[in-house]
Amino acid sequence: MNITTFTKSPIALALSAVLTASVSQVALAEQTSDAKTDNVEIIEVKGIKGSLVRAMNVKRDMSGVVDAISAEEMGKFPDTNLAESLQRITGVSVSRSNGEGSQITVRGFGPDFNLITLNGRQMPGTGNTRSYSLENLASDGVSALEVYKTARAENPSGGLGATVNIVTRKPLASPGERYSLSGKAIHDTSNEENSDVTPEFSALYSNTFLDDTLGVAFSFTHHERDFQKQLANIQGWQANVALPTNLDDDKVVDPRPLDDEGNRVGNHFFPRDMNYGIENLERDRTNGHVTIQYMPIESLIVSLDYIRTEATTGVNSIGWGLWNDYGGNINAYEIDENGTVVYADISGNDGSYTASRGTTDVEEESIGLNFDWQVTDTLNIVLDYHDSSSEIDNGGDDGLGSFGSLVLGSDQLRTKTYDYRNGDIPRAEIYWNNGTTELAPGEIDSHFSQFIHSPGKSEIEQVQLHGTWENDAFDIPLVQVKFGGAYTDQRMGGSHAWSGLIGGFLFNPSWPEMFPDGMFTKHSTNNFLDEFGSGGANLTPSYYYTFDFDEVVARSEAFLTNELLGGDDYFATTAYHDMGTLTEGSVQEETKSVYVQSQWEFDVADYPVQLNIGVRYEETDVTSNVLQPVPTTVWWKGGSEWHTQYLPGDANFLKQTGEHDVFLPMIDLKVELTDEIVARASWGKTITRAPLGDLAGGRSLSGSPKIGSRNGGEGNTNLQPFESTNFDLSLEYYYDEASYASVGYFRKDVENFIGSQIVSTTIDGFHDIYLGPRWNQAVANIEGRGEQATNDAIFAEIQANGSALNEQGYLTPSSEDPLITWDIRRPFNAPDTKTVDGFEIAFQHLFGETGFGLGINGTIVEGDVEFDVNSLEQQTPLTGLSDSANFQAFYEKNGLSIKATYAWRDEYLIGVGQNEGSSDNPPQFAKAFGQWDLSVNYDVDEQTTVFFEGININNETEQGYGRYEEQFLFARQYGPRYVVGFRYSFQ
Q1: Using an 8 Å Cβ cutoff, are 94 and 768 in contact?
Q2: What are the backbone dihedrals phi and psi of residue 431, each rounded to the nearest 5 degrees, phi first?
Q3: Which of 95, 177, 357, 920 could make a disulfide contact with 872, Cβ separation 3.0–4.6 Å?
């Protein structure tokens, strides 16, 4: 088994253009309850019904297609996770991280196509994407979520799928003293090693002073979760590996048809590896938000706010599995009709056990200042500034300062088998030289170790000016004009340090005496992946070993020294090793924008009509700076271990620039056919800018370029944005309080579709021992003796033929060897236009005064953007495209509320390219997923509520595959979570 390391630095800078500071419809609704109207009785509907009423009113009153979710009461959002709440909206589905909703897909467009804003301000993306990870923000302090599905000139660019605005509470919008305290006890049934019960507590406070001219609000939430993830995975599938021609008929099953020359028709695919693992995780998250508002005069409100998130995720994991190289070492195989191997007997390589440890810290903060000035009765001006940042660092482990993996195992095997003919998880059996299928502790040797440190930071500094003019001067149907401009400077920088594969790898020479037998603990797989039919006791192998990470570190530091290993090799727990590589870089996007948007109201044949027309123009400059080491050659250590060598000393920065501009018109038409029926039509253009990693210039080559995986990557700062022309039609029937039915059609025609093409190329000076004259002679000698030409045998034969190892124990290439063929991934704008269209259906009904309610919605989406699994040509599909549906049933009466929800998402394309896939850029698909959640709340009195929540109570699992379902990629199991708690509120 080998661990793949990518040398492409995590460099990119997320920028979405300017976001207006428009006041949300929900916030406006809150303002109507201003305490100054003391003589008016305000009746506030709380709970599930109140949340549904407010959300429905937003949908009905806004122009364009807008959906919303409102808090049920202060400190109580419908779900504990914002992403889980968003999936209740028609057309929205979520992708999960560690069993929690993390990012959203809207109308088939994945996380990178949707813009997330906080109170009208763009937030930096988390990690090397433009996507904001919603699990990092607590839901307690959120008052509403707004999802804009159609184009609006006043909204920023970047949300090709949708723009989602997260609205927090403002003290002057809800005068008076209000507060809420809550505490939770969380039990994650998957947990094995950490705390079975973890806490979550939150506090929210809001008050106004000085005759409601000064307001202060703050929220604080701390959340802890301990859990375990069990998984099986294959890193990638290799297309058309060399098949032996001398096997007996009983060793081959291949139903593919033959051509006239007796050759099989179609492609065939073999797995690169087969791995299993257990990850024990601890996650802590702390959120804080402070808002101060001051109204020095009646026409001016000044707001200052600060928000901060700190999230830490620590993981200790154990893994086990096998690795496959191909080339004369296949002893038997069975292929199905689509060319996928479902059984193979393979010689060579190794079986390994891996212990990994790491801690990732995320720190996000934002400070903002807002001036809202009602200049005259008809003119309002808003000036908004914020400075926001997001830092991520996987070096939070104090002992390592990086993410570390220790790989132990053995190459003393006769053969190994892969079997996926039955069940839902493949079986991988190793037949060791000891005559059994079980490796003894005394035979376990050091393979290699590696340490990775890749910190990064994304920053956004943004200033926005917005104006609204209400027409009272001209006797025309014009109601108002909105206008404004903005400047956004977004910078993202990062570095990537990799130790290289250190510590005397490849079992040659071998040092099993380093590790005493008592260091290893043997376990059965009986309780491993037991939600799968072929998991648990049915899994093969049926055992695995665990060992102490710190003990292996101590023994390796004492034994695997530079004096023993020579060259630059030695064991050390650092990513900044003498054998390693370091890359740095940054991307900056500067965007200037202006917009104007007008609203018109008039009657046509006695039907009230609202018309919105607007346009937005933006210019963006992109600058990329990348510092990379200079690769020079590739050396072979034997087996599957090939390592890129670099020039010593400092590398140089490569600076590249790019630019683009966009013109984004929009039209919204809303017609009230009756008092209950609303019809809408919208047309407009939206964009999503290129993925951040694609904009980072320069070229990177794999530091471990194994045969079949000689990969690299290049960026392109001149990539043009995805540009979509959108058309929407909808019909909505609001027939009772919080009850409605709607149906909508949408169509998106997308230009400049950004895809990845892999170009096979050679680079001067990079010669390849593989298939060179020494390699071919060694193969001829071995096969001439009637032996199997495995990579290990070829490595030994080349030495026997007179080629000596260098001081570091490598075979080095010569000028007689051919040049290496590298598969370089390059992003590009596809010339064709692709179309996505679909239908959204929603139904929400309250059964009179019974307390019962029901909500159902579904989205059917399709397009010419799907991945053709039968083609090995480069493709530019749309990731995330899938049908989805949501169901919600509830009862709420007499202080008791019970809610059951089910979220379903059909299978979808996760992405193109597999970690160890071949150069055809194979796909990754996720299977359909459906999750049941349950919540029960009981009001002990007017202020105190006790509650119970169950998340994923059906224990749904996650599964993925490659071109075909038979090309297994992953299976993941988490487990249900249960929460009990209380909430005390005063408002």
Answers
A1: no
A2: -105, 105
A3: 920
Query: What is the distance between the alpha carbons of residues 239 and 917, in angstroms, rounded to a whole number?
Result: 8
Give the DSSP letter of residue 189: T
Residue that wins the pLDDT comparison between 392 and 567? 392
Q: Note the pLDDT of residue 19.
A: 27
The token duo for 783 is 């096969």
Which pLDDT does position 6 carry in this prediction? 32
Contact 323, 915 (CB under 8 A): no
What do you get for the CA distance between the two ends of the chain, in Å? 60
Question: Can you read off the two tokens belonging to residue 498?
Answer: 């990799």
Residues 645-691 have pLDDT tens digits of 877 765 566 778 888 899 999 999 999 999 999 999 999 999 988 87
**Residues 724, 107: Cα–Cα separation, whole Å:** 13
Tell me what the mean pLDDT of segment 781-787 comes to: 89
Tokens (6 digits) for 787: 């032996």
The residue written with tokens 């979509």 in the block is 724
Q: Which residues contact 648 (CB under 8 A, 6 or more apart)?
A: none
- DSSP secondary structure, 824-845, as one string: EEEEEE-SS-EEEEEEEEEEEE
The answer to whether the beta carbons of residues 403 and 357 sit under 8 Å apart is yes
Distance CA 817, CA 801 (A): 16
| DSSP conformation letters of 30-42 | HHTT-TT-TTS--
Preceding amide of 171 cis, omega within 30? no
Interatomic CA distance for residues 127 and 13, integer angstroms: 10
Omega of the bond leading into 705 within 30 degrees of 0 (cis): no
List of residues 6+ apart from 248 with CB closer than 8 A: none
305's CB contacts (< 8 A; 6+ apart) are 119, 289, 290, 291, 292, 366, 367, 368, 370
Nearest to 140 by CA among 222, 197, 22, 224: 222
Q: Cβ contacts of residue 728 below 8 Å, gap of 6+?
A: 64, 65, 149, 150, 680, 681, 682, 683, 744, 745, 746, 747
- Three-state secondary structure string covering 64-127: CCEEEEECCECCECCCCCHHHHHCCCCCEEEEEECCEEEEEEECCECHHHEEEEECCEECCCCC
Mean predicted confidence (pLDDT) in 604-609 = 94
| H, E, C per residue of 432-471 | ECCCCCCCCHHHCEEEEEEEEECCEEEEEEEEEEEEEEEC
- pLDDT tens, position by position, 57-114: 888 888 888 888 887 666 567 676 788 888 788 888 877 777 777 788 888 888 888 8
Within 339-472, strands assigned E span: 341-346, 351-374, 379-393, 403-410, 413-419, 427-432, 445-453, 456-470
Q: Give the rounded percent of residues in the chain with a pLDDT score beyond 90.
A: 57
Measured CA to CA, the distance from residue 510 to residue 113 in angstroms comes to 50
109 token code pair: 């467009």
Per the DSSP assignment, residues forming a β-bridge with 69 are 145
